[in-house]
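Write out the bound-state structure for guanosine-5'-diphosphate.
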Amino acid sequence: MAYAYLFKYIIIGDTGVGKSCLLLQFTDKRFQPVHDLTIGVEFGARMITIDGKQIKLQIWDTAGQESFRSITRSYYRGAAGALLVYDITRRDTFNHLTTWLEDARQHSNSNMVIMLIGNKSDLESRREVKKEEGEAFAREHGLIFMETSAKTASNVEEAFINTAKEIYEKIQEGVFDINNEVRHTSLCFSFLLKPLHSSSVPVFPLFLLSVVFQQCVWFATLPLS
Ligand SMILES: Nc1nc2c(ncn2[C@@H]2O[C@H](COP(=O)(O)OP(=O)(O)O)[C@@H](O)[C@H]2O)c(=O)[nH]1
Ligand SMILES: [Mg+2]
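---
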């Protein structure tokens, strides 16, 4: 299907905050309570419409690597948006946000739009982090903020789409260099984009292959930019 833009998103945050469930809810509109810890990277993709334009969202899920904090520049490269997720029922996941943010800022394009997400809003009785605290953190660090529930789907659609709206506005304002960020990614990964959540396909070899391929295309396209 033809699209006007392709935005790469990454989802970051501590293990167990609901990153994979958020992705599954957004791409497949379903909640899978027990999610396998997969080593490697999982992809999801979905088409959305903004301002009458078809936009393909290509979403990378860290799938288990997060506990090693070994997320490298290649994971962040070309990302136009990041969903930084914590769990409102686990304060430690909120306390780790600063580290995640430093990581993201260090490895990504400075214009990357970051959406802070307080997930598991359905578990109100177990809440440890107030909504106001999330709002304050976002304000302080220039992020957008939403509380979501991957279980009930509350605000999930909005979180992904509002991030895209913000990226789209940056493109209109000429802040984003589409040639270097958005188009680059579409060249490299369009052939790999299949939601792999429901299968047990070992994606890590595929990921390695794609990184090598990405490097090749990256160098090949350098003289153009
Ligand atoms: N109640 C509730 N549980 C959730 C929600 N999102 C994820 N979970 C649960 O939290 C656990 C971790 O989710 P997962 O997506 O694997 O986290 P990840 O490690 O960040 O990818 C799983 O047992 C999920 O069922 C949510 O919004 N509400
Ligand atoms: Mg996961």
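---
The mean pLDDT is 83.
The beta strands are 5-12, 42-50, 53-61, 79-87, 113-119, 144-147.
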